[in-house]
Design a protein that fits this description.
This protein has 224 residues and is of the alpha+beta class. It has helices at 2-52, 57-66, 70-85; strands at residues 97-98, 104-110, 116-123, 129-132, 136-141, 144-147, 149-150, 157-160, 165-171, 182-190, 198-206, 216-217. It is built from 3 helices and 12 strands. A hairpin with a 2-residue loop joins strand 5 and strand 6 (144-147). The longest helix has 51 residues, at 2-52. Residues 1-95 have low confidence and may be disordered.
């Protein structure tokens, strides 16, 4: 009986040892599989680093910033504006164009008859210029201003060389009434086809009548 128990105990011990050996080999194999998983994780993380490299796409963004050189285009537009600014400075008064007030000097003298005033105009410019038509003449007194009417004479075309002179005649009724009449002390003269005027001193005395003084002006280039 004792021998049988010892035998059974030996079998049990042997079985226990075999089970322990099997358990240790199983745990070893599971450890290998666990060690393989970190390596997979490492490769994944390296892949993650690889995927981070597209962050170099920010350099693509910097490439977009070079598109800001479009500001150079705006500079070009400004340049265009400055270029157009030089256009007007190149224009000038061509030889033979209309005489301007700025290039004329004015003076007055007595006419051939009583009631006439000659207005002389001299070309002070450096090129030929032309005059054609009636001048504008406004007469000023202490009581106000009147404008001379145009006569019926035809207007010639007058070309003035530098230093040359022409004239027109102003007609007015002399004051023979014995009264004080109306005295015009200034003439505001505007050459034909011009908008700028010049003012001359004058002393034209006319009678006061209900129909007005009846002052007329001839075209430029007529009169003695």
């Amino acid at each position: 009986m004792r021998v049988q128990k010892i035998s059974l105990l030996a079998v049990a011990v042997a079985a226990g040892l075999s089970l322990t050996a099997c358990g240790s080999s199983d745990s070893g194999s599971s450890g290998g599989s666990d060690s393989s998983s970190p390596s997979a994780t490492a490769s994944d993380s390296s892949g993650g680093q690889g995927s981070a490299s597209p962050g170099s796409g920010s350099s693509g963004g910097s490439g977009g910033s070079t598109g800001s050189t479009g500001s150079t285009g705006s500079t070009g537009r400004n340049g265009g504006q400055s270029g157009t600014a030089h256009g007007p400075t190149g224009s000038g008064r061509a030889s033979g164009s209309g005489c301007t007030t700025a290039h004329l000097s004015f003076s007055t003298s007595g006419g051939m008859a009583e009631g006439e005033l000659i207005v002389n105009m001299k070309n002070t410019g450096s090129a030929n210029c032309t005059l054609h038509g009636f001048p504008g003449v406004d007469l000023k007194s202490k009581d106000g201003t009147i404008s001379a009417s145009r006569s019926k004479l035809a207007a010639p075309t007058v070309t003035l060389q530098p230093g040359a002179e022409t004239r027109f005649t102003l007609h007015y009724p002399p004051n023979t009434s014995g009264g004080s009449g109306e005295t015009f002390t200034q003439l505001v003269v505007t050459p034909p086809n011009e908008t700028h005027s010049t003012t001359l001193n004058a002393g034209i005395n006319v009678p006061v009548t209900d129909g007005g003084p009846g002052i007329t002006v001839d075209p430029v280039g007529t009169g003695k």
